[in-house]
C-alpha cells in the first residue's frame, strides 16, 4: 500500500506538472492573448467550484461556521498580504498575456515567487485530502491542472522575449512543480492525523488562499482581454467542475 504522504506528493506534482505543459506551449506556439485569457477565465471558474464543493464542502461536515469563516478569512488575508509584498511589476502580472507582460531581467525570479505562492494553498489542500482519507476528486485535480497552464504559457512567452533560455524555463517550472509536491507532502504529514476541527480549519485556510488568488490574479488578467466573455467562460468552467464531480458520485 502506498503511504499517504507519497500519494499526496505524487498528486501535488501531477497537478502542477501543467506548468511544464504550459511552458512548452508558450515556447513553441504563439497563442493570441485572448485565447490565453479564455483558458484563464475557464480555470477561474473550475477552481471556484473545486474550493466550494471539495474543500469548504467537506469542512462543513467537520466543524462549525466559526471555524470555517475564521479559516477562510485567514487564508485570504495571508495570501493577499504576501501577494502585496511581492507586487513588483514582474510578479503583479504573472498571469498576463505575453504581449502585455513586462520583459525585465528579473521577471523569471518574480514570476517564480508568485507562482509558488499561488500553488502553496492548492498543494496543502491536496495533501490534507489524501492523508485524511477524503475524496480527492478528478474535479479538484483538473481545476488546479487547468489553471496552471495559461500561467506558464503566457509567462514563458514573455520571458522568452526577455532572452531567457529553454534550460532556464525547464528548471524554473520543473522546480516549482517539485516544490508543489513537497508542499502536498507537508500537508499530509503535518495535518493528516489532526483533529477534525483542525483539518476543517486548514482546509478553509487553503480555500481562502485559493479564492484570493483567483480574484487577485486570474480574473483581472482574464478580464483584461476577454471583458464580458470572461464571465461566460468562468461560468463554463464552474459547470464543467460540477459535471466532473457528479460523474464521480
Automatic annotation (TrEMBL):
<protein>
    <submittedName>
        <fullName>ZIP family metal transporter</fullName>
    </submittedName>
</protein>
<feature type="transmembrane region" description="Helical">
    <location>
        <begin position="65"/>
        <end position="82"/>
    </location>
</feature>
<feature type="transmembrane region" description="Helical">
    <location>
        <begin position="9"/>
        <end position="29"/>
    </location>
</feature>
<keyword id="KW-0472">Membrane</keyword>
<keyword id="KW-0812">Transmembrane</keyword>
<keyword id="KW-1133">Transmembrane helix</keyword>
<feature type="transmembrane region" description="Helical">
    <location>
        <begin position="231"/>
        <end position="247"/>
    </location>
</feature>
<feature type="transmembrane region" description="Helical">
    <location>
        <begin position="35"/>
        <end position="53"/>
    </location>
</feature>
<feature type="transmembrane region" description="Helical">
    <location>
        <begin position="198"/>
        <end position="219"/>
    </location>
</feature>
<feature type="transmembrane region" description="Helical">
    <location>
        <begin position="124"/>
        <end position="147"/>
    </location>
</feature>
<feature type="transmembrane region" description="Helical">
    <location>
        <begin position="168"/>
        <end position="192"/>
    </location>
</feature>
Amino acid at each position: 500500500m502506498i503511504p499517504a504522504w507519497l500519494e499526496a506528493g505524487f498528486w501535488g506534482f501531477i497537478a502542477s506538472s501543467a506548468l511544464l505543459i504550459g511552458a512548452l506551449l508558450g515556447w513553441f506556439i504563439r497563442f493570441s492573448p485572448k485565447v490565453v485569457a479564455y483558458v484563464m477565465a475557464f480555470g477561474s471558474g473550475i477552481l471556484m467550484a473545486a474550493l466550494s464543493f471539495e474543500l469548504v464542502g467537506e469542512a462543513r461536515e467537520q466543524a462549525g461556521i466559526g471555524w470555517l469563516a475564521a479559516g477562510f478569512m485567514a487564508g485570504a488575508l495571508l495570501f493577499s498580504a504576501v501577494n502585496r509584498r511581492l507586487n513588483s511589476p514582474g510578479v503583479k502580472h504573472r498571469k498576463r498575456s505575453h504581449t502585455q507582460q513586462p520583459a525585465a531581467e528579473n521577471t523569471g525570479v518574480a514570476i517564480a515567487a508568485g507562482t509558488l505562492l499561488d500553488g502553496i494553498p492548492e498543494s496543502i489542500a491536496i495533501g490534507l485530502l489524501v492523508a485524511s482519507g477524503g475524496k480527492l476528486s478528478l474535479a479538484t485535480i483538473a481545476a488546479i491542472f487547468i489553471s496552471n497552464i495559461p500561467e506558464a504559457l503566457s509567462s514563458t512567452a514573455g520571458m522568452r522575449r526577455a532572452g531567457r533560455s529553454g534550460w532556464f524555463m525547464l528548471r524554473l517550472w520543473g522546480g516549482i512543480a517539485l516544490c508543489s509536491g513537497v508542499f502536498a507532502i507537508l500537508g499530509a504529514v503535518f495535518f493528516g492525523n489532526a483533529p477534525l476541527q483542525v483539518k476543517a480549519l486548514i482546509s478553509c485556510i487553503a480555500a481562502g488562499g485559493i479564492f484570493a488568488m483567483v480574484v487577485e490574479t486570474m480574473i483581472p488578467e482574464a478580464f483584461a482581454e476577454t471583458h464580458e466573455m470572461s464571465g461566460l467562460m468562468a461560468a463554463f468552467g464552474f459547470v464543467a467542475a460540477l459535471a466532473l464531480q457528479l460523474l464521480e458520485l
